[in-house]
Amino acid sequence: MPAQRPRASFEPISTDLDINQLVEETPNFEFCNRLSFTEIERSPEGLERFERMVREVCINKGLPLVIDGFEEKLDAWAFTPKWLIDNHGSKVENARNLTQKDNIAMTIKHYLSHMGKLTEQFFEGPENYKDKSRQRVYLKDIDCPQVWQDKLKDIIPGAVFYFNDSTGLIGGPGALNDPLPHATGPRKGKGIGIAGDLMSSLPLEMRAENLMCYIGHEGTYTPAHREMCATMSHNIMVNTSGDVDENGNPERPGSSIWFMTQSKDRKIVAEWWQSTLGHDIELEDHFAQIAAWQRAPFTTYVVEQKLGDFVLIPPLAPHQVWNRGTRTMKVAWNRTTVETLEFAMHEALPKSRMVCRDEQYKNKAIIYYTLMKYSSLIKQAEDVSQRSESQRDALARSKKYRQVQRDFIRLFELFKEVLLAEMFAPGSKESCELLTFDSNVTCSYCRANIFNRFLTCKHCNDKFGGDDPYDVCMDCYVIGRSCECRSKYKWVEQFKWKHLQDRYEYWREQIIKISGGMTGRTPYQLEEERRLYPKKTTAQVCQEQLRIRPWIDIKKETPPTDDEEDGEEEVTLNNDGTIKKVTKKKTKSYFEKNKSCHVCLSRHPKWTMAMCTMCEKYWCYGSLYRAFDLLPQMVLEDPNWECPHCQRICSAGNCRKDPRQQPYVPNGTSLGHDTKKVADIRSVECLVDFGVSNLNWAANDGSQFERLQAEQETMNQTQPQDHSGDEMDLDGPRIAYSPNAMIDPALAGDVPDTLEPLAPPEQPLISNIHEYPDPSTTTAYPDIDNSGYDLNVTMYHGPGTVDTSTPAPVNGSSNTNKRPAADMDPIKIVQRKRKRKANDEEEVTPNRNKASKQFQQEQHKKQLDQARKEGRYLYVWAKLNNKSLKVSLTVPQAKLEELQSIDQEKQAKEQQRNNVLLRSDIRPPPLVVYKPVPKPSKPKSFKARLEEDEDFGARWRPKAGKQKKKQPQFEEIELENSSEDDFFYERAGGNRSSNRRKSDWLARKNQDEDEDIPEELPQDYKDRAPGTRSSLNGRRSLGQKAPRIRPTGGSNNVDLTNVATSESEDEDDTSAAAENTASKAAEVARLAMEEENRQAKLQALHWAEDGEDDDDAAEQDGTEGDEEDELFAAKTPTPQRRRAGPASASNSPAPTSNSARAGPSKSPAANGESLASRMAGRNIKIVAAKTKKFFSKSGPPGRSQLPG
Question: In what ranges is there compositional bias, type Low complexity (predicted)?
Fold first, then answer.
């Protein structure tokens, strides 16, 4: 993980800060150089000289520059909040909430209308600006309106504007006629010249649009950062608030404060940020306080940007911005030049790769397409020269054409580096998959844009779903970044290698023509360049690493580890013979595959270590990177690598005692970068953990700044700032630059372009707040033009303000206004807070006494026993053992929405407490509510097959003749109740699952058939008398009627008359007697119902045995049927049924004649007939419950749902 150490805090800038006083009192603060655009336009060849001046000052020397005077040229109607509201007010943008570090979606109109409220909160009290919790909303990085772009294009010099494709003059040397489709003749085109922005060389679909608008109020800011890919940044203020707005409402005057540095101090600035402030400037997450800038060991250039000020920031120069007033509206864009491409390829891109920052500008593609463009321009110049001698002479004198030739050569050198890095080892062949180039392939780890060759893994493309292959650039794979598979990658290229070789040879021939033949700096053929290349190429290193890195099959459940040991186990015992620990004995193969690092003394797999070619010591790449500033790529590319011990710079513990060794101290501080949050989720780092800092090795005593300054001075002496001088003598006169005079004196008038002394201008265009010493005595700038200019320069603070007082001397001269560094405000640091446990106040110092430990264990045991009884065991156990307890609960959707609404209300109240003044005016997207997939609706009815019952089945007598095949019988069941529905649905083969109980339906269905089947206990079973049972209140089966309590015949029948009489006579008895009587009545009813059901079942059995033929015979001769009834009754062990009649005739036999049965119709209830007596002698046919469809008489009757 990155280092956790004290870090500088965010400190807002005061609302009444005096910039002039701040700069005058701070020794290392200086005002930025200013240049008036009005004077540029007045001078002859002013724009051409302005272009050269920007290249010399901002790019070669790396100094910031401000050009003022554009406020009079800005459209007073378009660049206003009213125009923006009228034309783009409804457009939704993401405003950056700097306080909460999140985005708020809102319309532009909503934001502009609330800027006054957001500003006034800082002026309500003298200390309000210090409140860090106040809302700071910054509308940044929004698309610039096309109208604004067109109007700025008319006033900004084309050489420094957005997407400028040519700086050539119309009708200049090498110009061609542009045909006009609707005109009578052609139009003169632009002459040959370099592109102001090399991004314009890319096709439209490949360009990165970076023309952005920034609208902010008091207290908003941009953290300290460096521009992406070392590009040059441009920022112009197009609108600021004044004293009153367009509607007459009061406002606070708007401006922006810039803190900028010089490009050559970039390493010192980066080290100051990490070692002193505890932040990484590559991450753009910290706005440095003024005290940090005042104590910094480098010069800070300060400027207050007002309306019409055009700020140019040099490449790789760190800077930050603070907005003041009610409103500031700026337009910014970045430009890519040949110089910025060199900075990007050699410095910016490697650093961006370490922090996984997006490469949006596609630098290698820009190199390729710009070479194609400049090659066509050079070919065009050759064709034009052959047509006319005047054109040939004009091109020979043209500085713009010679600049195209210089940039073409420099771009070719960068292209050669790209091709050399992608060349395989000599004699090796790789099968590469061809993928058409569209500039959209990015590295899955560092997110850099890949130009041609890369590695891809297709084994883990479906690990997390989808079909996304893992593409990794060669630079990442060399330093150990890859997916978990580590090896078995496939090569992919986006251009045919033969095509790139042909391009290389064609452009090389053009360079030879430009140089006038072969010279010492002429590039060789590609194969010869590869042979002379002193190191291994990046592609060759990847080939070697693919062979030695083990492949891991991530689809297996337990992938093998690198430190797997298969040796024997060693058991260590305590004094009492118990096992203390068990370790595996390392085998011989383990020591062969794993070596000990010379620095950290830990064993690592050999493929993760570097071996010295001289002493054969092994070094882990983590120690080499953190202690010696050696990346794995630097070690692997060197075929004859010598370790630090052989170089006598080893800083290991034993080597420090050796007097021959001079321990190496890292040049800078590295806090580590946790890239797991931004890289692909499948990514790993197998060679170096770049998230670990080097604080244990780096010196933090201030000596690192002295070393960096000495290194920078050495670099400046060996590498001159001006790259234009070469053997071809393509340069004209150099632009003289002096901070005590004008940047380009020739801008003041029509003067010869020479280095001869010039007459001093009447009014210098650029000046500084300080007065500099005599140029003849200064040595700070070796290329100063000592032309004897008037040193009494005008103090120029800004447009409309001129100070004629005595200028302040430069640093080093006597100045009483400068405060010493000891009097500066200290840098406020945020100390790292220890995570306090929840029970810290109860925690005491642990006792080391054995008796105390035993007592504490007993106390814990008692607490756990008590918690177990109370159901709090897990919670108490987790508290006692300092463990985190995680419980997963299934929350219903309705409850979840309720909790979310409560949480939103709490957040709203918290926002009110946190001084939230601006909220989004966009309706939030609807809450995604989980809707379960609807289950198939259950059928309302189904058919159930009827099966024969052994107890009630009949033995069928086959008839003479051909027997018909028995057809299966079905019964259609209608579902009405949820409990019955579930039961029947499962019986019918449905796959529905339900957690509801089925015992309720089963108990009701079988309550009178089989007493062994368990039934569900009624709700009032505890309140009944022993031995009693009540009828269930649930739904009855299909066709079932409510049972009636009535007397039945037989010896077991109970006469209810006496019971009813006794009840009427004992109305005044106690409640206990009444309960006893009720229980007896319930028992009598139960017995009567059981007897009735038994008789019905016996009668049904009798009908099944006799069949339909007996019934027909009984209809013809009634006596026969009666005799069978008497026989059936005689065989029955239970008493015969009897008809209701007088009491005296209760024991007389029942009449057996058919005529007796066919008496007058009477009510069965009135006659006291039982169910069996009412069904006797009837031809009953079993039908379905719903359809009433008769079954075939020839078939076997199925089971019927009889009453009861």
Answer: 1071-1085, 1141-1158
DSSP string covering 1126-1187: HHHHHH-SSPPP-----STTTTSPPP-SHHHHT-----HHHHT--HHHHHTT-----B-TTT
Of 823 and 976, the one with more pLDDT: 823
Calpha distance 36→744 (Å, rounded): 12
How far are the Cα atoms of 14, 113, 809, 919 from residue 133, in angstroms, in the given order? 15, 22, 41, 15
**Joined tokens for residue 1131:** 């065989």
d(CA 23, CA 261): 14
Burial category of 370 from C-beta neighbours within 10 Å (exposed 0-12, middle 13-18, buried 19 and up): buried
**Percent of the chain residues past pLDDT 90, beyond the cut:** 43
Cα 879 from chain centre? 34
Cα(257)–Cα(987) distance, integer angstroms: 82
pLDDT at 734: 33
- Model pLDDT for residues 1024-1045, shown as the tens digit of each residue: 444 444 443 433 333 444 333 3
Q: At what angle do helices 497-515 and 399-421 cross, to 10 degrees?
A: 140
Higher pLDDT, 975 or 179: 179
User: Cβ-count burial of 605 within 10 angstroms (0-12 exposed, 13-18 middle, 19+ buried)?
Assistant: middle
| Angle at which helices 363-387 and 389-397 cross, to 10° | 140
Contact present, 618 and 597 (Cβ < 8 Å): yes
What is the residue-averaged pLDDT of the chain? Answer: 75
Model confidence at 958, pLDDT cuts 50, 70, 90, reads low
Q: Tell me the residue ranges of DSSP E strands in 26-161.
A: 29-31, 33-36, 65-68, 92-97, 102-107, 137-143
Q: Which residues make Cβ contacts (< 8 Å) with residue 713, sequence separation at least 6?
A: none
Residue type for position 165: D
- Rounded Cα gap, residues 1049 and 1088, in angstroms: 9
Element (H, E) at 684: strand 683-685
Tell me which amino acid residue 898 is: E
Rounded (5°) CA angle 51-162-45: 25
What is the rounded CA–CA span in Å between residue 343 and residue 315? 8
Q: Where do the H-state alpha helices sit in 562-657? A: 588-593, 621-628, 632-637
Q: Locate the DSSP E strands across 317-414.
A: 319-324, 328-335
Comparing 366-380, 405-419, 482-496, 801-815, the range with the smallest average pLDDT is: 801-815
Question: So what's the pLDDT on residue 1049?
Answer: 42
Q: What is the dihedral of CA 1099, 1105, 1109, 1115, to 10 degrees?
A: -20
Give the separation between CA 1105 and CA 328, rounded to whole angstroms: 106
Neighbours of 124 (CB within 10 A): 8
Digit-coded pLDDT (tens) for 863-888: 888 888 888 887 888 888 777 766 67
Domains of the chain (ranges; CATH) run 19-166+188-337 (2.60.120.650), 370-548 (no CATH), 588-716 (no CATH)
Q: 60-64, 203-207, 299-303, 517-521 — which is least confidently predicted? A: 517-521
Phi then psi for 572, rounded to 5 degrees?
-105, 130
**Residue of 946, 935, 943 whose CA lies nearest to 975:** 943
Q: Sheet containing 92-97: which strands, arranged edge to edge?
A: 33-36, 65-68, 310-313, 232-240, 328-335, 212-216, 137-143, 92-97, 102-107
Predicted TM-score (pTM) of the model is: 0.68
Burial of 1019 (0-12, 13-18, 19+ CB in 10 A): exposed
